[in-house]
Amino acid sequence: MRASTFVYPWDVNGDPEAAARIAGLGVRQATLASAYHSTRALTPGHPRHRIVTASHAAVLYPADPARWRGRRLRPYAAGDWAPGDAYGEAAEALTAAGLDVHTWVVLAHNSRLGEEFPDTSVVNAYGDRYPWAPCIAQPETRAYLTDLAVEAAVRPGAGGTELESLGWYGLPHLHAHDKTSGVALGDAGTYLMSLCFCPSCREGYAQLGLDADELASAVRRALEPVWRGATPAGDWEAVEKLLGGELATATRAWRDSVARSLQTDVVAAVRAAAPDGFRILLHADPDSYHVGANAGVDPEHILTAADGVVVPCAGGPGLLTPFAAHATEGNVLAANFPVVAGMGGSPATLFDDATQAAASGATELRLYHAGLASEEDLTLMADALTRLD
Questions:
Q1: Phi, psi (5° rounding) for residue 29?
Q2: What is the pLDDT of residues 118-149, one digit of tens each?
Q3: How, if at all, do strands 121-123 and 51-54 pair?
Q4: Which residue of 125, 240, 280, 311 is surrounded by the most CB atoms within 10 Å?
């Protein structure tokens, strides 16, 4: 089973042994970040540093000035954590080690964009802005995300791309000293807290015959039991119970149409710019109302628009099933496993986990993340991949 591991440029650059070490795991591909959000990352195997702090979302290559000239929204250059063409340097080393290199592009997740241009952010029913979550209904934001996807995905020598957060990003966000888990929201509460009430979304609700102010009031009323400690049980049915079936259906219709059209447009734009054979995958969740890095999608639609999906499988292979039901020949269903033990991953069970995923329809593996892993984690990963061959 073809396997790829996620990698940051700073895992490779400055470490002459990194590319060979990654190739030695038994993976065929490296999924290398070319546009990424802010992070603080451990680099346990690097000879020159142990911690890399990326202070804001950035592209990890030199952006094309002509593409972005005169535009308000444009990608930010990285600082000293990824200077120059950090992506290109790392890609060259990984390719020389015999690995296929695909780009890893983070899209609708950018705290600096929201801080500098607050009007681009999702606004919840209480009027709170989420600076990390650009609203994908806004035309200017959609144009920015589309062009960013094209530029960051189709890098020289890349054989494909994996697009993360290509959809609605909402409340969930690991932030510095995060203190938002005091109330268990569940999927339903998270959805309601992620509904956007920016001007573009208000106009969208109006097109469906909804009064945005009345809808916001209804959302706040629906959340009152949650703030008192009543965690809503269930999935979409819990949203309908809290908000009412008619309102819930209308909000989902708006959000699904926005996400679906953006996903369609971005994939088409990347495909038009890419060479033949270039593979386009989305990090995806099969429940379209879900928000976050693994964007909610319609499985049938996304497998006709893109070449496949990367599916989170930390909790088991269950999320693969809806995609497997609609997959056709040539679709990639990549099961994504965290394999860093210190971050909750389970490299020791990777063989069994991968075997179960294959039985549920997975055609490939994604391993998160070679650059963050300890030597012991890497040894366990390599052993599992050897057994899977």
A1: -140, 145
A2: 999 999 999 999 999 999 999 999 999 999 99
A3: unpaired
A4: 311
Matching residue, tokens 């990347």: 270
- Least Cα distance to 113 among 150, 61, 43, 165 occurs for 165
**Integer Cα distance of 249 and 288 in angstroms:** 12
Residue pair 1/72 in contact by the 8 Å Cβ criterion: no
pTM for the full predicted model:
0.97
- Which residue has tokens 């290109």? 88
What single DSSP character describes residue 277?
T
End-to-end CA distance of the chain: give it in Å, rounded. Answer: 7
Decide if 10 contacts 86 (C-beta within 8 A).
yes
CB contact set of 375 (below 8 Å; sequence gap of 6+) = 44, 45
Residues of the chain with pLDDT under 70: none
**Cα distance between residue 144 and residue 122, in whole Å:** 16
Interstrand relation of 129-134 and 121-123 (parallel, antiparallel or unpaired): antiparallel
Residue 231: the pLDDT is: 82
What pLDDT, on a 0 to 100 scale, did the predictor assign at position 173? 82
pLDDT digits (tens, 9 = 90+) for 312-349: 999 999 999 999 999 999 999 999 999 999 999 999 99
- Distance CA(372)–CA(168), nearest Å, equals 27
Buried b / exposed e over 148-159, threshold 16 CB at 10 Å, is bbbbbbbbeebe
In the chain, the amino acid numbered 221 is R
Using left for φ > 0, alpha for ψ between -120 and 50, and beta otherwise, residue 229 falls in left
Residues 6+ apart with CB under 8 A from 113: 57, 73, 76, 120, 131, 134
Q: SS3 for 312-347, per residue? A: ECCCCHHHHHHHHCCCCCCCEEEEEEECCHHHCCCH
User: What pLDDT score does 183 carry?
Assistant: 87
Instruction: Give me the count of residues in the chain.
Output: 389
Cis (ω within 30 of 0) for the bond into 301?
A: no
- As given in the structure block, the two tokens for residue 103 are 């780009």
Can you tell me the distance from the alpha carbon of 364 to that of 333, in angstroms, rounded to the nearest whole number? Answer: 6
Using only C-alpha atoms, the chain has a radius of gyration, in whole angstroms, of 21
